[in-house]
Specification:
single chain, globular, two-stranded antiparallel ribbon
Length: about 240
């Protein structure tokens, strides 16, 4: 476990002596109020480092929210999450605006799906479908509002914010978003993770080749991952967790 930064250390002997001489109480510097999470706050300033691998059961109390690529990962059967809210074309605004999900034949919106539930983790993989048409400020604002809503619905749950996986060179050349734009949007996600104190999972970097693109052998069409690609994704998730 890393040591806390110096601002979290106890008051030093020099200040203690000053207090004893003055006889007057001195208030310690105010601290930023953090969300109700169990883990130490310093990790929020950086992407999650590699950790001890967990088994698929670790995700049994997790909600996965995302687009078609996430849906394909979960359909691969590598692990079984507690709840899957993923579908083709999904964007962050849809999730917040009452977009309807289907689970075991039941159709409901996000609040109906999660309110009163006991899930302890939330994994987000959004941003690709809206990257090309949603402005930077709106992108950030919509995502931030979604995180706030998830916190209200699942107090104390760990929130994992996944960066977006690039596309191949050939796909980027003919259809937006290209990888340069995805890099910009992933930078926004990194800032959002720090501002909102959620865990940043650098999935995108794990798929980025030397040319900044997804390797063609990991995708069938330049966008969607092959079976090998989904295994690589799962391996990254299970080796980048908090509190294990």
């Amino acid at each position: 476990m890393k040591a806390f930064p110096s601002r979290f250390l106890t008051l030093g002997p020099a200040l203690a002596l000053l207090l004893s001489l003055s006889g007057q109480a001195v208030q310690a510097p105010s601290r930023r109020v953090l969300p109700q999470v169990v883990d130490p706050p310093y990790v929020f300033d950086f992407p999650l480092p590699a950790s001890r691998p967990v088994s698929g059961d670790w995700f049994s109390d997790a909600v996965f929210i995302g687009d078609a690529r996430l849906a394909e990962l979960l359909a691969a059967g590598l692990f079984q999450p507690g709840l899957t809210l993923a579908q083709m074309g999904l964007n962050v605004r849809d999730v917040r605006s009452g977009g309807v999900f289907s689970q075991n034949g039941v159709r409901a919106n996000l609040r109906q799906m999660l309110e009163g539930a006991s899930f302890r983790k939330v994994y987000l993989m959004l941003g690709f479908n809206e990257a090309a048409w949603m402005g930077e400020q709106e992108f950030y604002g919509e995502y931030a509002a979604l995180i706030d809503e998830l916190r209200s619905l699942l107090p104390g749950a760990q929130i994992y914010l996944q960066t977006m996986i690039p596309v191949t060179v050939s796909r980027a050349a003919v259809q937006s978003p290209d990888n340069a734009l995805l890099v910009e949007r992933n930078a926004l996600l990194a800032r959002l993770a720090q501002d909102k104190q959620v865990y940043l999972v650098e999935v995108g970097n794990s798929f980025t080749g030397v040319n900044g693109a997804l390797e063609s052998g990991l995708s069938s069409d330049g966008l969607h991952l092959t079976a090998e690609g989904n295994v690589q994704w799962f391996e990254y998730l299970r080796t980048h967790t908090m509190g294990t």
